[in-house]
Amino acid sequence: MSANSYTGTILNKMNNFINVIMKSRIKTIVLFLLIGISTSAVGQNNNEDKAAIQQVVDRFKAAIVSEDKEAFMTLFVKEEISWVGCGSRGAMFASPESFMSLVAQLGNCREDFHNVNIWHDEYIGVVSFDYGFFENDTLMNWGKESWMLIKRNDQWKITSVNFSINMPFAKPYPFGEEKN
């Protein structure tokens, strides 16, 4: 074998090796790009779902203030869901409709939310928070509340509401001044 043919063989092998490495690097780069794009899309959906659930929270509060029963009822998967409050006087079973009837009867109500946490995947969600329920700026009760939600037809709907009931005369409200 001549020196030129030996050098040519080595150069061909080196070129083949470089081509394999370059193809491998290109594949690796493409793979990382695809992973980055898909992660970005999942992150975007994650942010969109969290924002949509936060809108449910905001619409819930707004419907109480405006006493808008129709708007309130659209937040739920159906009219009759699990709606349970529990406190020192035992458990209270109700519904979104009966709650809004109480709000209309009392008038000038609001519910303040603190420490709102939202967890979800693409199908179910959980919202938990501390709340204070006020009538005419007077604290009526407060506690912890949690909702289960499902995503149905690209809309988040509440399937259950559970809350504790603390009376301000029995336990002080931890989130600011309460009017007496």
- Element pattern in H and E: HHEEHEEEE
Mean pLDDT: 85
Count the beta strands. Answer: 6
What is the CATH architecture descriptor? Roll
Provide the CATH topology: Nuclear Transport Factor 2, Chain: A
User: Helicity level, as a percent range?
Assistant: 40-55%
At the first level of CATH, what is the class?
A: Alpha Beta
Distance between the termini: 104 Å
Contiguous helical run count: 3
Low-pLDDT ranges: 30-34, 37-43
Rg calc: 29 Å
The side-by-side strand order for the widest beta sheet comes to: 2-1-6-5-4-3
Main β-sheet description: 6 strands, mixed
Describe the structure.
The chain is α+β, with helices and mostly antiparallel strands and about 180 residues long. The protein has one domain: Roll (Nuclear Transport Factor 2, Chain: A), CATH 3.10.450. It is built from three helices and six strands; from the N terminus they run ααββαββββ. It has a six-stranded mixed sheet with strand order 2-1-6-5-4-3. It is elongated, with a radius of gyration of 29 Å. About 5% of the residues have low confidence.
Highlighted features:
180 residues; alpha+beta; Nuclear Transport Factor 2, Chain: A; six-stranded mixed beta sheet; 34% strand
